[in-house]
Amino acid sequence: MTRTNDVNWHERSSRRFFDRWSRNYEAKRISPWFRHTQQLAIDALDLRPDSTVLDVGCGTGYAVRRLAALLPQGRACGIDISLGMIEKSKELTQAHSQANIEFRVGSSSQIPYSDRSFTHLICTNSFHHYAEPLLALTEMHRVLVPGGQLALMENATDLSLYARLWDRLLRWFEDGHVRYYTSTELGDMLEAAGFVSRNLRVLRNEFLKHGKLFASIQVWRASKPVRNGPQSGLF
After folding, report:
1. N or C: which end of the chain has fewer CB within 10 A?
2. What's the pLDDT tens digit per position in 100-131?
3. Is there a domain that residue 92 lies in?
4. Domain span including residue 121
């Protein structure tokens, strides 16, 4: 299988997997865990009322709706490779009557927004599905304004044997799963994609939280460089 075919296969597998899951995603026992980790990513950002934020791999849009409530003069957007997830996101948004929201079907390797569209970006619980992780980070870098911030949450295989074993099991049993990364690997990829001010905000094991028996997690915050200025971000 060629590299292009391999990437296409992973994207098709992920799309089918999440299209099926979208039907009962909000009702799953794991949903409170996703909300918990999405909040960790949101809390890592320096938001203002007029910030514009993109959630890459938004699922059914919980984080986008949460962000929209925090951004009365701003905008919250979400993309997901799954049409089923996006349709469910739009359905739930109508129920919450939040106008400063937009959802689009889109791939992390080709984000459907122009350069410098967002001040902030989050990505939670989806990076392990990306067949081209460095390209995905490069795309995230592209759509951020100079000084814009990224918060990225994923599992961390350097924290526990459980995380490493779970990673291997998912490669066999979950469609579209590529791999989890150590905190060093993820930090190095952020640097390779051009991000600066990389800050590992969370690196810990969690037990019996939000419907999850055990998890090893990492949350990174990083910034797009500011031209001819300090590299600590604009916000």
Report:
1. N
2. 999 999 999 999 999 999 999 999 999 999 99
3. yes
4. 3-223
